Amino acid sequence: MKSELKSLADFSRIYIMDEKNLLKYLQNECDELEAARLLEWLSESEENRRELFRLEVAWQLGQLKRYSDKDFVREQKEKLQERIAAAELPRRTFFPLRMLRYVAACVVFALLAGGAYFFYTSQAMEVLTAGQEVEQIVLPDGTKVWLNKNSLLKYPKHFGTSKRFASVEGEAYFEVTKNADKPFVVETEAMKITVLGTVFNLNSFTEANTASVTLLEGEVKVEAKADEGLVVLSPGQRAELDKLSGKLYVKSRSQAALDAAWHNKLIPFEQATVEEIAKALEEIYGVKVRIAPDIDKTTYSGTLKNQGSIEKALRSLKNSIPIKYELKSGEVYISRD
Amino acid sequence: MTEEKENIDFEVLFERYYPGLLFYATRFLNEAEAKDVVQDAFFDLWTRRDRLNLGAGIQAYLYRQVYTRSINHLNHKQVCSKYSGAIQELYKHKLAFYESTDSNEIIRAIENKELRGQLLEAINELPDKCKEVFRLSYLQGLKNKEIAEVLDISPRTVEAHMYKALKTLRLALKRLFLCIGLFFLFFYLK
Q: Which of B111, B134, B153 delimits the end of a domain?
């Protein structure tokens, strides 16, 4: 009687322990001790083993409902079909052989045409001026470029379909042929200038701290490459880029043409006073010019030929303007004649 | 025309057996691995469709394929070695169970809607709160902690409900597998 009670107590203890243990097992959270207890129970009989693994299936059978979901199955089926299609592809011929031949011919032709076009547009032309000579180049679209000393111009032998690209290192003067559909883009190491059809002078020497664009006609858009700066210039304005700070300044230039005077050896003046002409000469020839206070404010228009020395220029000037000049220790004095 | 028919048959076959096979594979593998294994089995079936003529044996063939591929995957991963001694032993028992003829009754339990319905009925007879807790675990696969959060009850309460559900399930299973046994016997005699 006593032993019967004891075994009953044992039984219920084991039974309860198992329930907890089972749950741990079913929820995949068995620790070492619980696993050992369960193992002991399993070893007792074949029936216990069956019960545990049947229970495990039953416990998780609810997942089957999720796996039976129509959309889920369709999704998985489509994945398999994709895989099958990918595996079938090489051995299945979709087109009759003759058709395939035409397709192949088309592909080859397209590749050749594309390659030729690429070759055609990517052929790069380079012009480098070294000595004392300024060179004039006519680009494929008729745009004229004067390239100053020690400068480099790069452009394609044939322009692309949407834009005309060229690049400059140094100084160049552009007379861009108008074509609103194909903007003309000039790049330097520091700036990008976009134009439709204009005349402008570009000065961008790699070693200089500033780069500038002076617009003579039309409209240009100037962008600094390093920064987000962008300005649109009107004729007579000059954009100066400080390469160190990356800032772009716009300055008015009363004698804008002076910036471009190098390209055709002509120095144009329009309603300029003697003082203004003197300043221009100072700038072009790098010689200090002083003016006598009695010089009047009469304005003159015309073109002065750039003749290589300030003395020659002054001699020509003297023919049309009533002045006299004097050269003394590297400086020029201009006074009334 | 014949190829089209073949495709349709294959699709029907897939839809018919995919859920059960995926569940079977999750006996041994995690869900992502199980998906791969079942897909491999179906892909293999597709590539061999000309040479295989299984007829009614297709179900047994597919389950056997999934089992073998799962075990290969496990061996490849050497998953057993990463568990401690006792858990590893438990796993060996489990594999032995699935290796034996007992796996047939599991497959039958998976494939037989009627039996599954009976199991659901047993769950439905649980008290409301207990049922709610268990369904979250059974149908949605939530963990105890998640169930406690969803229902705003303590984890201990969740555990108590789970014990109760487990007890009911154990009893229902005894009846259920008796049915499966009779079912099997019936087919055997036939």
A: B111
